[in-house]
Description:
The protein is an alpha/beta fold. It has one domain (6-259): TIM Barrel (Alpha-Beta Barrel). Helices cover 41% and strands 16% of the residues. The chain is built from twelve helices and eight strands. It has helices at 22-25, 38-47, 57-62, 64-67, 96-101, 118-134, 156-169, 182-191, 207-218, 229-232, 237-250, 254-259; strands at residues 15-19, 52-55, 73-76, 106-113, 139-145, 173-176, 196-200, 224-227. Strands 1-2-3-4-5-6-7-8 form an eight-stranded parallel barrel, surrounded by four helices. The longest helix is centred in the middle third of the chain and has 17 residues, at 118-134. It starts with 14 loop residues before the first strand and ends with a helix. The model has no long low-confidence stretch (mean pLDDT 97). Bound molecules: 1,6-di-O-phosphono-beta-D-fructofuranose. Residues 19, 21-22, 25-26, 142, 144, 200-202, 227-229 line the site of 1,6-di-O-phosphono-beta-D-fructofuranose.
Amino acid sequence: MKRIKIEKILTDGKSMLLAYDQGLEHGPVDFNTRNVDPNYILYIAMHGRYNGLILQKGIAEQYHEHYHKKIPLIVKLNGKSNIPRIFPIAKQMCSVKKAVDLGADAVGYTVYVGSPLEPDIFKEFGEVQEEAHDYGLPVIAWMYPRGRYVSNDTSTSMLAYAARQGLELGADFIKIKYNDNPEEFKWIVRCAGNTKVMVAGGKKIDDLSFFTKVKNIMGTGVSGLAVGRNVWQHDTPMKVTAALKKIIFENSSVENALKMMK
Ligand code: FBP
């Protein structure tokens, strides 16, 4: 079996990734005149020394010369927009080979847990996972419960099932949403077994709430955070980045993180 190079997106077993695939998922509604420019995000990712930047193929290609070899790259292989209200499914749009050509250090794929199209999603994810592993590339699975059979996408039982599916499907990392309950989240992390858990940032919230959330999350045994809007929608993204790093990698307190924002 080929060795999977997970260390490329980890620092001492922990990780902080910057996600910038929202333009496809949500449209430009998340952006302002600064963060609509991919160069602004590349600056934050590189100068903030993130463990990786998550991009769709288009931005990865168009801005390649600006970031190549300066920041680990995670290429998202599937995605969807929020315009058609169809069954939740995001088909593969970028091949693993293309991601390798772009210099990817890992690939990402969204699995809509509970979707009526789950069998097709599992099949495609299985192919992507095997191909990526043939190249030694780690696979990050966005395990997002969604669709008419999912009544609560952040309940502990649903997230625990999603985490377990990530392990069973062969993801090296899963990216999941938080249930706002650190004690119960520990069970979710246990369900993921040796698959490492990263938590999604979510909608932009105030500094105290966000740092408290991250501090609580880091106490549950996760590997880290894959954050987007709470960093690049912030007025001072480099300060948030520095404060987040203190919490994630140095176990710093929320109070210390807040002081760094002054
Ligand atoms: P945020 O930190 O901005 O929430 O990004 C996390 C993320 O998983 C993105 O990678 C993705 O574009 C988005 O959330 C999808 O969110 P949803 O499917 O809930 O709209």
